Amino acid sequence: RFLAPEVFFNPELVSSDFLTPLPDIVDTCIQVSPIDTRRGLYNNIVLSGGSTMFKDFGKRLQRDIKRIVDGRVKKSEDLSGGRLQAKPIDVNVIAHKKQRHAVWFGGSIMACTDQFYQFSHTKAEYEEHGPSICRHNRVFESLA
Predict the structure, then answer these.
(1) What is the C-alpha separation between 104 and 109, in angstroms, rounded?
(2) 130: alpha, beta or left, given left = phi > 0 and alpha = psi -120 to 50?
(3) What span, in angstroms and rounded, lies between the C-alpha atoms of 48 and 37?
(4) Per-residue confidence (pLDDT) for residue 2, from 0 to 100
(5) Is the pTM of this model over 0.90?
């Protein structure tokens, strides 16, 4: 018998199409970030959205990410033959009172900015291009 949040940590329970657990996805995202930002990112993993409200979700995510990180640190120390001693990496998953609605708060703040309509897709554009227009993000295009 499994509870719904277990799917985040063992997705193979419900689908053979999606096999990567959430802790691995978070770790991969941090690992592809610039090396000088990784410690800060591991120390500030912020939960948002209703699916993160399950009891002890944050504790489980933190524990699983910490195991991945500690395993990587130990492996690099072993590969160095004991010559290098790595500084431990702190993993901190932050849960907060407003995490259920955090995404909506962020969206409402973005909608209040003057640039919102420059980065939005109109209904007419959606009707012209269809759902595939959602794969194009004007915000990220402007950063290039």
Answers:
(1) 9
(2) left
(3) 21
(4) 55
(5) no
